[in-house]
């Protein structure tokens, strides 16, 4: 019975997210896209913070973002860079560069759907795993309710899969830290919170 429950709700959760991922786009995702690109494709592991300030004044990227685009700690960009490196064979980086500099020119093009899927799909497993961690925290029927509520959570669907923000990382790590405390693994909880804070 429990296996059927998880299977049914996991499938529903995946379908909901896969419906949202390719048809929603927000300018905010480009910061993580550009950071990931500069790190994974150009090797600018930490110097990507200064990249925009080195561009000539008329560069499309500089005109779009100014010089203060990268406002989060390094892990916020290093993590998407790892995913981009792994998925790089599937990227059309020529199209991605247009998406980064002049996003409005990509609207309605099939390559945009592909790009959005590649940028957001790594969040899917993390989001589903967070639902399972909530189940482990609350247990029994309350755990199942928490599990279902997370999978139907409109805020998560919006921020993570519509906008493409990275909030899923610190959220998962914080919830996992709560589970660690409940299981008397306090050092692990501290480590998880520290990593979560690094986003």
| Radius of gyration, taken over Cα atoms and rounded to an integer in Å | 18 Å
Quaternary state of this entry equals: single chain
- Biggest sheet features: none
Identify low-pLDDT runs: none
SS-derived structural category? mainly alpha
Mean pLDDT: 94
N→C terminal distance: 38 Å
Number of strands: 0
Q: Could you spell the SSE succession in H and E letters?
A: HHHHHHHHHHH
Question: How many separate helices?
Answer: 11
Detailed description of the structure:
This protein is mainly α. The chain is 68% helix and 0% strand. It has 11 helices and no strands. Helix 10 (168-182) packs antiparallel against helix 11 (186-197). The mean pLDDT is 94.
List keywords for this structure.
mainly alpha, 199 residues, single chain, globular
Outline the secondary-structure elements.
Elements: H1 2-20, H2 29-40, H3 60-65, H4 75-87, H5 93-101, H6 110-120, H7 122-138, H8 140-151, H9 154-163, H10 168-182, H11 186-197
What is the structure about, briefly put?
The protein has helices at residues 2-20, 29-40, 60-65, 75-87, 93-101, 110-120, 122-138, 140-151, 154-163, 168-182, 186-197.
């Amino acid at each position: 019975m429990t296996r059927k429950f998880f299977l049914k709700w996991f499938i529903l959760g995946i379908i909901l997210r896969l419906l949202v991922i390719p048809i929603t786009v927000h300018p905010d995702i480009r910061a993580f896209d550009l950071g990931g690109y500069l790190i994974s494709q150009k090797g600018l592991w930490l110097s990507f913070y200064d990249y925009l300030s080195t561009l000539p004044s008329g560069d499309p990227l500089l005109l779009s973002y100014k010089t203060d685009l990268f406002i989060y700690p390094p892990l916020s960009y290093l993590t998407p860079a790892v995913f981009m490196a792994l998925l790089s064979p599937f990227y059309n980086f020529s199209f991605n560069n247009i998406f980064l500099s002049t996003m409005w020119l990509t609207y309605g093009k099939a390559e945009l759907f592909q790009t959005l899927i590649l940028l957001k799909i790594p969040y899917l497993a993390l989001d589903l795993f967070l639902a399972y961690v909530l189940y482990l925290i609350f247990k029994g029927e309350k755990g199942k309710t928490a599990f279902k509520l997370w999978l139907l959570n409109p805020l998560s669907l919006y921020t993570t899969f519509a906008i493409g923000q990275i909030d899923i990382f610190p959220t998962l790590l914080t919830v996992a830290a709560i589970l660690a405390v409940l299981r008397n693994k306090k050092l692990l909880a501290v480590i998880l919170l520290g990593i979560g804070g690094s986003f």
